[in-house]
Write a structure and sequence with these properties.
Blueprint: H1 5-29, E1 42-50, H2 57-71, E2 84-86, E3 90-97, H3 99-106, E4 113-116, E5 119-122, H4 127-135, H5 140-145, E6 151-156, E7 197-202, E8 210-211, E9 220-221, H6 234-243, E10 247-252, E11 255-260, E12 268-273, E13 275-276, E14 279-281, H7 282-295, E15 299-302, E16 304-305, H8 318-328, E17 332-336, E18 355-360, E19 364-372, E20 377-381, E21 383-384, E22 394-398, H9 409-413, H10 422-425, E23 429-433, H11 441-450, E24 455-459, E25 469-471, E26 475-478, H12 480-492, E27 497-500, E28 504-507, E29 535-538, E30 542-545, E31 564-567, H13 570-587, H14 593-602, H15 624-627, H16 634-637, E32 642-643, H17 648-658, H18 662-668, E33 693-698, E34 705-713, E35 719-726, E36 732-736, E37 739-742, E38 748-756, E39 763-772, E40 777-786
Parallel strand pairs: 6-12, 6-15, 7-12, 15-17, 17-18, 18-29, 21-25, 22-23, 23-24, 24-26, 33-40
Antiparallel strand pairs: 1-3, 1-4, 2-3, 5-14, 5-16, 8-9, 10-11, 13-14, 19-20, 19-27, 19-28, 22-27, 30-31, 32-34, 34-38, 35-37, 35-39, 36-38, 39-40
Helix pairs in contact: 6-13, 7-8
C-alpha cells in the first residue's frame, strides 16, 4: 500500500529528521564531510504497473518527467531525462537517480517498485533430429502441420542477417498484425530484413533519452547510435536455434556436418538487440519486452538472467515484470534457467508465468584422442583443429612439475596465469587439473599456449561433458579415471610423451540426454512452492548460425571463418523450447501461453536413449529440480490430452500468497477490482494451478497437506482418464477422484492430491501422478520437502 500525500509528507519529514541526525554524527566524528552529501547518480528503473491498451504515450512521458523534476534539484536540471520509457504493455521509466531520489520516488502513488538498473548476464545440426527421434514420432508431421503465422521475438545481442539460416525462400506474406519495424543503423539496412527476419530493433546504453522540450509542447527524443547487427554471435545463434531455415551441409569447420535448422523453421523472427558482450542493462531488456509485446510477437525467447546470488523479488526483476505483462497479452515468455549449476537453489527466471529451461546433452559429442608414448589411446573431449598426427610425439609434463620459481604447486597444477617456467614448458604437452573454478578452460589454454606448450590435457570430471573449443591449439579434456591412467603412465617412465589428435564427431553417444553440469538447479530461491526449472532441452555443443569469427586463433589454418558455431549453455536450451512453443502455437493458435507450457511439461520424456531414467552429469538419477519435468518432446506436446491452464487470476493470487499488498497488485493489473483471498500465506502457493506440484514444507506431525488442480480436456470429446501414482518411499499420496470423465472438448475437471510424509526421511523426495485415457499420458510431477 502506498502512503497518502499527507502520510508521505510525515514519513519524509521523519526520514529527513533521521538523516539530519546521521549527518550531525558524521560532522562530529569525521575529519571531512565533503564526500558524504555527494551521492553519485546511478541508473534506476521505476516500475508503475499495468497500462490499458491505447494509453496516451505523450501524456505518460510528460508525467514521468514531472516526477523527475520534483525529486531532482533545480540546479541539476540536465538530469531530468528518461533513459527508457515503458508505455505499451506496462508503464514506467528508467533514469539517472541518486539513492535518495530513488527512495523518494518509491513513495509516490502509483509506483510499484524502484530498483537499480543492473547488468544481466547472457546465459543446430543434430539437436532437433535427436528430439524427434526420442519422441518416437515421424518428423514429417512437423512440416505438415506448421504454419508461418507465428512470430518469435529474440531478445539478445542482435542478428547477422546474411546467414543462410534467415533466408525467406518460400515464405508467404508477413502477417498483417505485425506492427514492428526494421531499424536502420550504421551497418544495417531495411533491406536486411525480409519475410523471415521481419523486424529488428536495437538499444544502446543511453537509447533514445527523452527530455522536456524547451517550448513545453512536446518531449524531445534524442536518437541513439548503433544497429541491430550482432557483434557477439550469441543472438544469431539463439535466433537460428529457435526458427532458423533449414541449411543443407552445415558444419563447423567440418565437424557436426548435417542439416542445420530451427525448432520452428516456418516461424518469423523479430530481433531486439538489448545486449552486448558485457551483458544487458535490465532497463533495456524491459524496454525490449515492452516493444515486442506491442509489435505483435507470439513467443519471446530470453537467454539472459540475473546471477543466482543477486535475485530480487518478483516485482523488482525486469524479466519477471515484463513476462507478467506479456502473459496478460497472450505472449509466451521462455527463459534460460542460468548456468550456475550444479548446486541447488541456483535457478533464475523462476516466476510462475515464465517457462524456465534447463540444459541437457544430445547424442553427439566431439572427441579428441590422446596417444601416449606407450601406444595407449585415451579418449578425451574437445573441439580442436590441431594439425598433429599420430606419427608425432611430444614430451609430457604435469603442471606442478614445471612451475615457475616461488609459484604454489596448486596454481601450476591448475594452469594459473604466470605459474609456469617457460623454459620447462616450451615444446611440451602440459597436463593440468580443474580443481580451481576461478581459472576457466579458456584461460588455461591461453596460459599453456603463452608458455610455448605443444598442447594441453585437462583433467576435469564435471566439464568433460561440455567440449571446449580450443581452435587450432591441441587440447583434450578427460575425466578423473582417464586422468589417473595418464598420470600413472607419466610416473612409470622417465620420458613420458604423447600427442593430441584433432577432434572428431562421436555420434549416437550414450547415455543421452544428460543434465548438463552447468545447468542451474532448483528449488527456486524466491519460492520453493513452484517447481523450477520447468523442462529441459538440448544446450550442450549446439551447432547453429553465428557471426563469422574475426579472431585468428579461432579459425583453423587455411580455413575461412565459419558461418556456424558450436555453443553450450542454458542460453542454447532456451530457444529450443521457444521454437517448440512456436511450433505448438502454429497448430493450436487459440492456446494460451500456460496451455502450451503445460503441454510441454506433461509430455516431457524421462528416459534416455538407453531406455533408462535420465541422469545428471554425476551419473545419479536426475530429479525434477535438476531437469524440470524432463526433456521436451515437441511432437508429443501437439496432443497432450489434458492441459493445466494457469490464468492471470492464478498469478494474482500467487502475488497475494507471496506477500504483496492488495493495492500493489491492483497497480500491476489495471481495469480490475481484484481482491486477495482471506488469510493469504506462502503455503497456499502450492495450490496455484501449475502443471507440476511443489510442497515446500511438509512436517511429519503436520496435518496432511492437500493440493488441488484443474485440467482442461483438449483431446477427444468423450474420454475418461485414470490416475496412477508413483510415490516415493515414506510418503503416502492419494488422488481424489481417481477417474476424470469428459463428455466434450474444453470441458474442465478438478482433483485433489493429499500428501502424508509421517514416515519419510528428511529432505526433498519426488514422484508423479500420471493420468491416462489409453491414448494420452499426462504426467503431473511433484516435489515434496519432508521436514
Amino acid at each position: 500500500m502506498h502512503p497518502s500525500p499527507a502520510r508521505a509528507t510525515l514519513i519524509l519529514s521523519s526520514a529527513m529528521a533521521a538523516l539530519l541526525l546521521q549527518l550531525l554524527f558524521l560532522v562530529l566524528t569525521s575529519p571531512s564531510v565533503s564526500a558524504i552529501s555527494n551521492q553519485a547518480p546511478e541508473p534506476y528503473v521505476v516500475y508503475m504497473g499495468g497500462i490499458p491498451e491505447g494509453g496516451d504515450q505523450e501524456a505518460l512521458q510528460a508525467s514521468h518527467l514531472q516526477m523527475l523534476s520534483a525529486v531532482i534539484p533545480s540546479d541539476e536540471e540536465a538530469r531530468v531525462s528518461l533513459t527508457q520509457s515503458y508505455h505499451h504493455a506496462f508503464k514506467g521509466f528508467s533514469a539517472m537517480l541518486t539513492e535518495t531520489e530513488a527512495a523518494s520516488l518509491s513513495g509516490y502513488d502509483g509506483v510499484v517498485s524502484v530498483f537499480r538498473d543492473r547488468i544481466l548476464r547472457l546465459h543446430t545440426t543434430r539437436s532437433w533430429d535427436f528430439l524427434e527421434a526420442e519422441s518416437g514420432i515421424g518428423s514429417e508431421r512437423l512440416h505438415d502441420r506448421a504454419s508461418n503465422d507465428v512470430i518469435i521475438g529474440i531478445i539478445d545481442t542482435g542478428i547477422w542477417p546474411e546467414s543462410p539460416s534467415f533466408s525467406d525462400a518460400g515464405m508467404g506474406k508477413i502477417p498483417s498484425r505485425w506492427k514492428g519495424t526494421c531499424m536502420e543503423g550504421s551497418d544495417f539496412k531495411k533491406s536486411d530484413c525480409n519475410r523471415k527476419l521481419i523486424g529488428a530493433r536495437y538499444y544502446t546504453s543511453q537509447a533514445e533519452p527523452i527530455r522536456p522540450a524547451t517550448n513545453g509542447s512536446h518531449t524531445i527524443r534524442v536518437d541513439g547510435f548503433g544497429s541491430a547487427r550482432d557483434s557477439v554471435g550469441h543472438g544469431t545463434h539463439t535466433a537460428s536455434t529457435a526458427a532458423g531455415t533449414a541449411v543443407q551441409s552445415a558444419s563447423y569447420y567440418g565437424l557436426a556436418r548435417g542439416v542445420a535448422k530451427g525448432g520452428s523453421p516456418s516461424s518469423r523472427l523479430a530481433i531486439y538487440k538489448a545486449c552486448s558482450l558485457g551483458g544487458c542493462a535490465s532497463s533495456t531488456v524491459l524496454k525490449a519486452i515492452d516493444d515486442a509485446i506491442d509489435d505483435g510477437v507470439d513467443v519471446i525467447s530470453i537467454s539472459i538472467g540475473m546471477s543466482s546470488a543477486f535475485q530480487t523479488d518478483f516485482l523488482s526483476d525486469p524479466i519477471a515484470i515484463g513476462a507478467f505483462h506479456a502473459n496478460q497479452r497472450g505472449v509466451m515468455v521462455v527463459c534460460s534457467g542460468g548456468n550456475d549449476g550444479p548446486d541447488p537453489y541456483t535457478v533464475v527466471n523462476s516466476a510462475p508465468w515464465i517457462l524456465t529451461v534447463a540444459a541437457s546433452s544430445i547424442d553427439r559429442t566431439f572427441q579428441s584422442q590422446i596417444v601416449l608414448g606407450n601406444g595407449s589411446i585415451m579418449k578425451g573431449f574437445a573441439i580442436s583443429f590441431s594439425n598433429l598426427s599420430s606419427s608425432e610425439s611430444f614430451p609430457l609434463v604435469f603442471g606442478r612439475d614445471v612451475a615457475a620459481e616461488s609459484t604454489p604447486v596448486s596454481e601450476a597444477s591448475n594452469c594459473y596465469p604466470g605459474s609456469f617456467d617457460a623454459d620447462k614448458t616450451s615444446g611440451k604437452i602440459i597436463v593440468c587439473v580443474g580443481t580451481d573454478p576461478t581459472v576457466t578452460r579458456r584461460v588455461k589454454k591461453l596460459v599453456a599456449q603463452g608458455a610455448g606448450a605443444k598442447g594441453l590435457i585437462l583433467i576435469d570430471e564435471d566439464e568433460k561433458g561440455v567440449p571446449f573449443d580450443s581452435g587450432s591449439f591441441p587440447f583434450s579434456e578427460v575425466g578423473n579415471d582417464v586422468g589417473a591412467q595418464i598420470l600413472e603412465y607419466m610416473n612409470s617412465t622417465k620420458k613420458p610423451s604423447a600427442v593430441i589428435l584433432p577432434a572428431e564427431d562421436a555420434k549416437e553417444f550414450k547415455p543421452a540426454p544428460v543434465v548438463a553440469y552447468f545447468s542451474a538447479r532448483g528449488p527456486g530461491g524466491l519460492t520453493e512452492a513452484i517447481l523450477k526449472p520447468d523442462v529441459m532441452a538440448p544446450g550442450v555443443s549446439i551447432v547453429a548460425a553465428s557471426i563469422p569469427s574475426s579472431d585468428i586463433g579461432d579459425v583453423p589454418a587455411g580455413k575461412k571463418p565459419s558461418s556456424f558455431a558450436i555453443k553450450s549453455g542454458t542460453s542454447m536450451a532456451c530457444p529450443h523450447v521457444a521454437g517448440a512453443a512456436a511450433f505448438i502455437k502454429s497448430s493450436h493458435p487459440r492456446w494460451s501461453p500456460s496451455m502450451i507450457r503445460s503441454a510441454l511439461v506433461t509430455t516431457a520424456t524421462m528416459t534416455n536413449n538407453l531406455g533408462k531414467p535420465l541422469t545428471s552429469n554425476s551419473g545419479a538419477n536426475a530429479s525434477f529440480h535438476d531437469m524440470g519435468a524432463g526433456e521436451i518432446s515437441p511432437l508429443r506436446a501437439l496432443s497432450p490430452g489434458l492441459v493445466f491452464e494457469t490464468t492471470t487470476e492464478d498469478y494474482l493470487r500467487f502475488l497475494c500468497y507471496y506477500g504483496y499488498k492488495e493495492q500493489v497488485i491492483r497497480s500491476v493489473i489495471t481495469g480490475t477490482n481484484f481482491s486477495c483471498p482471506p488469510d493469504p500465506t506462502q503455503d497456499l502457493i502450492s495450490n496455484i494451478n501449475y502443471p507440476s506440484i511443489s510442497v515446500a514444507k511438509l512436517e511429519g506431525k503436520q496435518t496432511v497437506v492437500k493440493v488441488s488442480r484443474t485440467v482442461t480436456n483438449v483431446g477427444p470429446a468423450n474420454s475418461t482418464y485414470t490416475a496412477a501414482v508413483d510415490a516415493p518411499s515414506g510418503i503416502v499420496v492419494k488422488v481424489s477422484p481417481e477417474r476424470l470423465a469428459f463428455t466434450k472438448r474444453w470441458m474442465r475437471a478438478s482433483y485433489e492430491v493429499s500428501f502424508d510424509a509421517k514416515d519419510a526421511s528428511r529432505g526433498y523426495c519426488y514422484g508423479s501422478i500420471t493420468w491416462s485415457d489409453g491414448a494420452h499420458t499426462v504426467r503431473n510431477g511433484f516435489a515434496v520437502n519432508a521436514m
